[in-house]
Fold this sequence. Notes:
Elements lengths: L6 H7 E4 L4 E4 L15 E2 L6 E5 L2 E4 H10 L6 E4 L12 E4 L1 H5 L15 E4 L2 E8 L2 E8 L2 H14 L15
Antiparallel strand pairs: 1-2, 3-4, 4-5, 6-7, 8-9, 9-10
Amino acid sequence: xxxxxxxxxxxxxxxxxxxxxxxxxxxxxxxxxxxxxxxxxxxxxxxxxxxxxxxxxxxxxxxxxxxxxxxxxxxxxxxxxxxxxxxxxxxxxxxxxxxxxxxxxxxxxxxxxxxxxxxxxxxxxxxxxxxxxxxxxxxxxxxxxxxxxxxxxxxxxxxxxxxxxxxxxxx
Length: 171
């Protein structure tokens, strides 16, 4: 994705609060946007905060990265603690899409409580995704052993320590 806005333009129209990861309007550009008002809104669909500027819609996290660093490298802006509306710079990192997938929160459909571990034929099946391919790591009768195998694979394949955890609270 190529950004259509520059750091210079952003700093003219927005003010960044680094403690809370928020952007505020410095100019009033319509009847409904006032100076000092927080920019954007959190989507109920995906949890990201979006901001409209000059007819384009941007994720606030990407705008903050541009605001602070001047540009955004190719890749994803990952929310380290899985909270997509926590746009403090300390919670953001630019990674490849593949690395972003190695820091996913646990899905609500997960029944075991551990990603990559599921019940199959009265045993615990263990697997991990590597470059979009599922690698099976075996069946185990003891849940703790299955979890141990999965965690060792996460470490081996460079998964983030937060991978599979719930959303962390902001500080």
